[in-house]
Amino acid sequence: MSKKENEATKGNSVNKYEAPDGVLKGRKPFITAKKLETVVAILLGIATLLSAWASWIGTLHSGIQSINFTKSNNMASEGTAEYNLGLQLYLSDYMTWNVIREYYFDLDAAIAEGDKAKADLIKAKIEDFKKQNVSETLAEGMEWMEKNNKDNPFLMPGMSEKYFESAQNKVDESRELLEEGKRDNTKSDSYHLVTVIFSLTLFLLGIVGTFKNMPNRITVLVIAVVALVFAVVYMCTIPLPTGFRNMNFFDFSS
C-alpha cells in the first residue's frame, strides 16, 4: 500500500468518529456573552436600588438613635431636678411635722392643765398650720398614723419613696429611651453592614466583564449573586424604624 493510500485510510478512520460538518457549528452555547451582560446589568440595577434602600434605612435608624439619646439625656436632667425637688419637699414636710408635733405637745400640756381656752386655741392653730403647710404626701402619712395608732407619719411603708416617685419615673423613662437608642444604633450598624455587602456585590458585578474566559466570568457572577442573596436575607431580618411608612417622608403640603 502506498503512502498516500495509508494517509487516506487513517483520515477516514478518524473522520468517522467526528460529528458531521455543520452540527457543532450550528449548536449555540447555553450562556452567551450577550446573555451574561444582560444578567449582569439587571443584577447591577437591583443591587444599586437595594444598596440605596439599606443606606436610607440605616440613616433613619441613626437619626432615631440621636433623637432617643437626646430625649434620654433631657429626661435624666428632668429626673435629677425632680429628685432635688422631692428632697426639698421631704425635708420641708419633716420640719412641718416637727412643728406640728410641738403643737401637739403644747395641746397635751394645756389639756393636762385643764385650760380649755388654751387647748382650743392650740387646736385652731394646728388646723390652720396644717392647711397652709401640710403637703398631700404628709397628709396621707398623718392619716395612716392616726388609723394605725403610730406616733410618726414617716413610719408609713413607702412614705419616703413617695417623694421621689416622679423623679424615679423620669429616670426609668430615661433609661428606656437610652436602651431604645442603643437598639437603634445596633440596627443602624447592621444596615450599614448590609450596604457594605451590596457594595461588594456591585464591585464583583462590575469586574465580570474584565475576564476573558467565560468560566471565570460565571464564577465571579455566582459569587456576586450569593453575596446579593445573603445581603437581602440578612436585611429582611433587621426591623424597620418604629412607625415607618414610606409616604411619611413625602411632604405634599407645600
Description:
By secondary structure, this protein is mainly α. Helices cover 78% and strands 0% of the residues. The protein is built from eight helices and no strands. Helix 3 runs antiparallel to helix 4 and helix 3 packs antiparallel against helix 7. The longest helix has 81 residues. It starts with a helix and ends in an 18-residue tail after the last helix.
Provide keyphrases for this structure.
8 helices; 254 residues; mainly alpha; single chain; disordered C terminus
Q: Low-confidence stretches at least 5 residues in length (pLDDT < 50)?
A: 13-26, 250-254
Percentage beta strand = under 5%
Secondary-structure element pattern, one letter each: HHHHHHHH
Oligomer: single chain
**Estimated structural class:** mainly alpha
What is the general shape? Answer: rod-shaped
**Backbone CA Rg:** 42 Å
Extended strand count: 0
Roughly how much helix do the residues carry, as a percent range? over 70%
Our count of helices gives: 8
Main sheet attributes: strand count, strand direction, barrel closure: none
